[in-house]
Amino acid sequence: KKEFTSSYGLSDTVKKEINRLFDLKMKPKAIMESLLKMKNIKVPKMSQLRNYLSDRRRTIYGQSTISLGELEAWIHSHSSLPLDPHEVFVLCYRIDDSDEQNPIFRFVMSTKYLIEISKDASVVHADATYKLIWQGFPVLV
Q: What domain of life does the UniProt record list for this protein's source (predicted)?
């Protein structure tokens, strides 16, 4: 049975292997199983692996939260119709913060392709609940 590291931090060798497996879109459990099968690797604790992956995601993708100002800037920068039929753009938005107790911040986004195929659909389901709820926004679907 492999021994788990008890010292602080991961070696460069372990980080390199984790990065390689992460780039293959492997989940933490699968990464751990792969590390356990490797020779001459000090296998980290699952908590160490999760912390390392969290830091790596933050480095690659940026912070997991976005400010209202950043979201508003993104909306403005994606409000024109793109050439690529699969590129996301903002169809419409409404920002009204004149009533501080009940500010309104709404936007709808799609792609030209999704709009085109929706013409033939009898039912359309729009969903972004996971990411929005995770960010702390109320969602109505």
A: Eukaryota
Token pair of 37, please? 């099968």
* Cα Dmax for the chain: 64
**Contacting residues for 120 by C-beta, under 8 A, at least 6 apart:** none
CA 49 to chain centre: 18
> Would you say residue 87 has pLDDT above 90?
yes
Residue-range domain boundaries for the chain: 12-61, 68-135
| Nearest to 20, CA basis, from 38, 47, 40 | 38
* Spatial CB neighbours of 93, under 8 Å, sequence gap ≥ 6: 75, 79, 106, 107, 108
Residue-wise DSSP of 53-82: HHHHHHHHH--S---HHHHHHHHHHT-SPP
**Residue 134 pLDDT:** 65
